[in-house]
Amino acid sequence: MRVERMLTIIVMLLNRPRISAKELADKFEVSIRTVYRDLDAINQAGIPVISYQGNNGGFGIMDNYKLSHQLLTFENLSSILAALKGFNSSFEDSELDGSIEKLRNLIPADKVDELSQQMKQIIITKQPWTKSSRHKELISLLRQAIENTRMVHIDYRNYAGEISSRQVEPISLVFKGYTWYLFRLL
User: Fold this and answer.
1) Confidence (pTM)
2) CA 75 to CA 60: how far, in whole Å?
3) Is 82 exposed, middle or buried (CB count within 10 Å of its CB: 0-12, 13-18, 19+)?
4) What is the pLDDT of residues 84-141, one digit of tens each?
5) How far apart are CA 178 and CA 186, in angstroms?
6) I need a surface site. Which of 60, 70, 79, 84 has the fewest CB within 10 A?
């Protein structure tokens, strides 16, 4: 339990500029003294924890500190890669392809075959069996409209099957329950 708590504290410290000992104690339901011991152990392990004094004080990690890839286990990397690969089946995003390739490079050489086998055992995709390049193209166009805050013209079909044309400014695209939802500004 302590190791998991300390790993979570490290991730929280990496994701936030500052966090108080009380907030950490409340989150993990431990005493503030236990949090101080954990922070000291983290610091002794070579992760530079900094304390900030004053009203908005707390703890953080030195700005230029980079976390070693060894924090992620093979199972963590395998799960992340499976999810990214499935997500990318909808977008074919070159940036995401690059991220997947970088993560694959973190896999130890003796585990590459095991990863390949796992990637064949569990496949996550939202694509139907027949590939639709039109579908990917529409998703790509909507992503561009969201990123560039542009209006789009769509033909919308409601549950009753009635079709209407609309001019919308999309703000997010959500895939849930085998269906895409477009959130827009009113």
Assistant:
1) 0.44
2) 28
3) middle
4) 777 666 666 667 777 777 777 777 778 888 877 776 666 655 555 445 667 777 877 8
5) 25
6) 70
